[in-house]
Amino acid sequence: MTTAQQPLAAPPTGVGEPTAQGQVLTAAPATATQSTDAPSTSANPSGFLSPALLAHIKSSRTVTSELATAPPDTAVSQVAESLYGKPHHVHHRASKDEQLEHDSATGTESKGIGKLLEKLHLRKASTDESVRDETGQKDKDKKNPAADQWEAMRLLTEAELDEIRGCGQWGESKPGELFLNVYAQALLTLEDNPINGLVSPSLAGATGVVPLSIISVIPDIIEHHADIIVRAEHEVFLATNFWEASGSAQTIVDAMKELSRRVIERKSKKIVFKLMYDRGNPSQVVNPHQAVDVKTYTGDKVKLPAPEEIPGIELEVQNYHVPPVGTFHAKYMVVDRKIAILNSNNIQDRVNVEMMTHIEGPIVQSFYDLALLSWSSAFHPPLPLLTSPPSYPAPLTKDSFHFGQAHPLVSTKGDLESNASKARQTLAEHHASTEQANDEQTMVPKKEVWDANDTAEADRVDDQFGSADAITQHLNTGTKIEGTDKNAPANAAAFTPVVLHSPHDPLPMALVNRAPRGKPGHGDTFVPQDQAFLAGFKFAKKSVFVQTPTFNATPVVEAALDAVRRGILVEIYADLGFNDEGELLPFQGGTNEMVASYMYDHLTQSEKEKLKIYWYTGKDQLTPLNAKDKSRNCHVKLMLVDSEIIIQGNGNQDTQSWFHSQEVNVLIDSPLLAGEIRRAIDANQNTKFYGLVDPKDGIWRDKEGKELAGQKPPPKGPLKSLVGVKGAIQRVRGEGGF
């Protein structure tokens, strides 16, 4: 067992978390550099987690509570170090296998393309290593950097289950055994660095509710952002991988201007608005967290509003990237410490279908703590609610929240039927103005309609799909394509972008994130996100469902194969042709087509029946859509295990997300939500009905045995690397809609 690093300041108890009565206590005045006794290191009877880590998890002293009592110009990183010590970043050190990757270079590889690939950490492994090659050919002795972690995973004993039950603020909820086993594996990664998960350990697990989800094109999700922003009362924290001057960005800008107008009109204090994005630049070699000046963020590439355009808002912008390949891939927003939304899309115009969850309840404080740690620097000005945590009633039940028609973001939409005609007209005008040029999409931003509540939003969006043509029109955010499926498949549900979830009591939730890693190499899997993904496959008893743009990270590919061999049904929805250029480079895992062929090639005939790989098929289509055509993609990131737990958020199942990018994901324990989300996933696309590949070889064919037009074998040899350079550079820069 690893012993947690001794912090510079020990975590006292009773501060910063809800009491039995639901009131949140605040810390006594103190500076961020106070030093007290270290956590107890007495023997732990169960022994799954070290006593030092347990002390941090059970503490109520968090980065949020300590920053609240620190001087206003204190950097968040300083507070974190005072609580948990300077992290060793053990998982960031190159493993032996990683070192071999770089020591194996020949003299000729250090020139030309080889030199570029080396900088991008995308060179081949040494010839004495057995690795699955990029073409997906047979190689049963391939290298898996997470193999030892996979082998070490085991189910918790009864005593250990009790221990992990005590490692979260669960209120009246009772986490299930599957949730606890997955959560425990995420907690193990905090031993050497308690904030390895980018959240204070005592806030890693809490409860929350999900009144609604959106599974649709980017404009629908961006408009939900806008509806929440215009209702902010004190502060907004918005994080995105890539902010690009676009119709989507303009919708957010319009919401900021509307919010400012409302602030001035009601004569209230200015809203403090923090915005983070990733636009890599040379200065980040010295400091990855770069403050963005007004001239830069109002320039043509970003086009945020100037201070005089939003007099009711104090805007501060940060550009975050860890060179060379540590992308800030996070996409979330926290408003007034009351609402968190977690989405798969960037603030840019892309042809993707995406997913977003709207979250409320105590888990929002975990998102808030995450936001502070991600910012790292001092805030100018400070967040106004930093010293004013919300309180929750006890017991906290579904009656404490609004669902469906009663939710503030829904009720003001009025009657769904009466608004249907207007919604169809608005959407028709929206998509009539959609254009595509040079692989970029221009979308008309929403400027006038601000949905007052969830019901109104659902009514406006969901009631416009009275015909197959209306669905095609809504999905055509890029190059116009004709719908080929005029009649819905048998048993297919109606297209419903805004999913209003059934009322439910607060559910056990946990953040399972990963910090960005700039250093080249493939050994960084001992992080909450990766371990949670692996544990989902390891502990599944019936089924695992995954939807992701790309499924090619070696650890997850091997975990899926292992689960299939145990008799677990594994269903994978992925994109045909998504980011194929970047995936063709050495060590990027190969394209989805290559991986599908590899997986089926390594299973027996009977085992193949348990592996179902599908290519994304649009709601209005009879055949899969090739992402290479830039007409439609699906960018959803989702895992469901045994129809009981959910992992949703930013993390793809690809090499970049597994080894390098900062990712934010939420683990939710709810068969109810898992069922509703899976039904919505299948209702809003035809993947389940038409996307299944042939288990014989992983190639899609129609009922007559014909392959999809445009399917081509990947390039080989030097050409493969040349084709991949463009995609890799886009990824490192945080571009490309990843």
From TrEMBL:
Bias type Basic and acidic residues, positions: 95-104, 116-145
Residues annotated as domain PLD phosphodiesterase: 324-351, 630-657
GO biological process: cardiolipin biosynthetic process
Matching PROSITE patterns: PLD (PS50035)
Feature: compositional bias, Polar residues: 31-47
Region (Disordered): 1-47, 86-147, 412-445
Cited InterPro entries: PLD-like_dom, PLipase_D/transphosphatidylase
Pfam families cross-referenced by the UniProt entry: PLDc_2
SUPFAM superfamilies: Phospholipase D/nuclease
Signal sequence, renumbered to the chain: none
GO MF terms held by the record: phosphatidyltransferase activity
The protein, known as: PLD phosphodiesterase domain-containing protein
